[in-house]
Task: structure prediction
Amino acid sequence: MPLLEVDDVVVQFGGVTAVDHASFVAEAGRVTGLIGPNGAGKTTCFNVITGLQKPNRGRVRFDRRDITRLSVPRRSRRGMARTFQRLEAFGSLSVRENVRVARDIHRGIAGLVRPASADVDGLLERVGIAAYAGERADSIPTGTARLLELARCLACDPQLLLLDEPSSGLDEQETDAFGLLLAELAAEGRAIVMVEHDMDLVMSVCDEIHVLDFGRVIASDAPGAIRANPDVQRAYLGYSDVDEELAEQTREILL
Amino acid sequence: MSTIISFTILGLFTGAAYAIAASGLVLTYTTTRVFNIAHGAFGMVMAFTFWDFSQRQGMPTWLALVLVLGVVAPGTGWLVQRFITRGLGEGPVSVSLVVTVGLFVGLIGLAQYIWPPEPRTVPPFLPDKGVQIGDTYVTAHQIITIALSAVVAGLLYLLLNRTRIGTAMRASVDNPVLLRLFGGNPDRVASLSWAIGISLAALAGILLTPVIGLSYFDLTLLVINAYAAAMLGRLSSLPLTFVGAMGLGILQSFAVAYLPTEGFLSGLRAVVPALFLFVVIILMPQAQLRIGQVKGIVSAPLPSMTRSAVCGAALLGVVAVLATAMSDANLLLVGTAATYAMVMLSLVLLTGYGGHVSLAQFTFAGVGALAYAKLDEPNLYGLVMSALIAAAVGALVALPVLRLTGLYLALSTLAFGVLMDKLVFQADFAFGFNGTLHAERLSLLGTSISSISGYVIVMATFFVLMALGLLVLRRGVLGRLLIAMRDSPAACGTLGLDLRWFRVGLFGVSAGMAGLAGALFAGLRGTIGAADFQLFNSLPLLLLAVVFGVTSVSGAALGGIGLMLLPVLQSSRPELAGLVFAVLGFGAVALGRDPNGLANLLFGLGRRLDRRFGDVVRRAVPLLPLPADRADTSTHGEVPLMEDLQQPLKEVGVHAAARG
Amino acid sequence: MSVPILEVVDLHAAYGRIEVLRGVDLRVPKGAVMALLGPNGAGKSTLVKVISGQKGATSGDIHLGGVHVQDTSPEELARLGLCTIPEGRSVFPNLSVEENLTLMSYAGVATEAVLDTAYSYFPRLHQRRHQLAGTMSGGEQQMLAMSRALASDPALLLLDELSMGLAPLIVDELYDTVAQIAESGVSILCIEQFARTALRVSDYAAVMTGGRIVATGEPAEVMDTMSDVILGGAA
Result:
């Protein structure tokens, strides 16, 4: 039984269908990639899963329960956390305080009585931003802020982690370290869903990939199979009469 | 039967005037996202201007009308948009609320200054004309008003749907940035809508004056009726706004006709618009958590705990010295200042830390005072109970609007204030109509504090304790949460924080603090009445809090003293009474964009001067650094002050831009 | 060589302390179509925002048709002949099609002319002229947006991610329109995630990454040498 099931979700903004009968799943202990061209509806899917966007139809099931009607914080307390493509760090708090807030929220009333900070630093260490602990969150580089959002999520110890373009802004070395961290987090039994544009990262860490194209899931498969899927290439290259030579060339680089 | 007809016509008449006012409010709000709380106040000032032109200067009515509606009002609207409210719509709601509350208070002050109180009348249009319908006589003025509302509706429809600039007005609601890329100018659109909006406020004011009289406050409160009507159209639909206005007018007229003139229900007649507003707000749909909201207010720096404790002790010392030296009358003022300062502390929590605006903070103090007097337990238990009752009432106010944020929450406090003012506080079970209640002074641990000097020291102690408590809270878990909520509600939500209940809690605690202040105030004065806690006093309170710095405890202390001095100043120079309010209002307009206020500016100035001249001064005058320092302040004060004022603004702008 | 229609010299821009444009140099010759390629986060959209006057630069110069245009407001630039079609649907969703078209006349063309041009190019818009723009399909909305480029006869057209969220077939149609506009002599700078689609209509291509232009040239050579940069992140 998968931890997260998105079932036949439709989201319309006026006449534009952002998500078009999309269905996919994510399982515990695995990294699931959600890829597709810009504007394919990936972030909208995240918003539907976390409750920030009401779907026009369809269901979201989490841990075998239908959560389609639950409020944002309730879903979160069932064990899901997300990062944002457009950063939502608490800008006027320090990096450490950002994670502390998440921890306090997670612990609820108990957090008021005995605030702890030791494992907060541990989390910063783990995602590799301990050096920034004292800085204001709105003054750190984008890549670091994305890792901060990840640390903030981890402070809530979620079963499901939704990461929206987590590696953009990271350099090559940082991206490699990030990949290792993802594998580790999945090995702890968490389900990770990641929207990502860095194909090297996606291909190396994901166990399964769903490809979204103008709101529809056009392929769901293991990385190898996705790599060979002509529909996927077409979606990415964006033209119907595939120029074979160019396609070959881009396939090598892209996938 | 004839009563129904005559009251319906009366209702249609007032409804028509509300509709004219409300459509102006909706127009300015939708095109610029600035909710103009001073809308009614503009109508009031314009009605006075019309009186001035037509009655005092003796112009023909038509000329005065053309001048006011065609020149003065649109010109004022244009100037206000150009120099005061421009760009506010993109900032936090709390800032635009404070700025327009500043206009509200400032305009009342201005009117009182220019047109000192004296009886004035404005005759209705065509006073001796009218039509007999059955048993009912309909005056020409009523017919003209109803017809004008239809004309306004028609013209607005044509403007918005049949002209390019009108289309651009609607476009700038959607996306002002895109309008600029099209080559349109959103500023011109905004100026036009403010010009029209203020003209409509003026027209409504002028039409209502013959009926409700030329009064500073009644016409200003017209804005509540306009809100109520506009809220039915969710502040965006003009047709629904007209429906709301007519419905409200008729409802109000029927309330006057059919509700009993005695007893509790009689009070209902005065609060129909407020009740209507409350009901509509409660029926509003849930506000969605949004990603990428405006954020990035720069907070005042937090003092260290030791420093705060030392400051608190010093303050207590000063009060203790004052208590032995001052006359009872002056001590009463010190106690009053302490009360105001405590109420301001509650605003520091709610507005400064939490980012929510309450327009009725004194009403909560009134609840505390009422509870204290009624409980008749002049001890710590009674005090705590009063605070708890006020807190419960505060939570109750926030509860129905649990699902709403910002503007609507603030407006519901306004409606609440009106309800309490006119319905509850004046009721027999409370203070009674124009009545007062007696309250005993507090006794602590069995010792009664009967002397006024002792009591003032107790009050100051409570202020210091409350302030220190607030600082501890700000440094702790809750303080961080509050900042986090202000910075990104969406992130808080997805991390599992239920913002709605948190907000209710915040309102409750803040109301409880105000209630405690009210209870102590009741003990200080001995007799208290509804007049001590009027809604109108809450607005200068908010403004002074913002002027002195609503993000800091020291701002609250200074603000408390300032608010206490206001009436003292006014009674010493009665002719300047209005001017004081005008200065305060427009001061808040100027400072409203920086919620850290004067307190922060003063501290910043001190630090800066110390850095720049401190060493030189200390070397030159080693024994007397203080007076020399002050001399510097007066000579070099202006330049850094300006810089300091603009710095936070820039940062706000940058963050807003970075977020998209 | 004649004066380029757009010349950007050592342009820097930042959000807060984070610098996004780090010395951009770019020339678009008069009458040419230039594709601007590069991975997400390279600063392409920021460049469009700075050129169109929506965002201030920290340093550097922009010349439009040989005229220095720093600190000129977007609406003035629009009236001077710069047509910017920003990312996402650049129409007013709550206005009807015809009202959207009416507003396009702010760029300095008579309303009648705008309506004529738009309806003759896209008859579908004529059928839907009383419909709210936001209720049309994504492709139709983008047609409406492109009508502005067609009708206002701009000196320079800035296109940002025209294809965002659209089916390939519709994207192809839209690029046919771009090609037609180019034929009429309009200079175009277009940002596109689908490199191939954009290059089909371009005379030149520039590659941007890390806030700088790292290569410019003929489409084929840029594609040959830079495809790893273009596709590495963009895909």
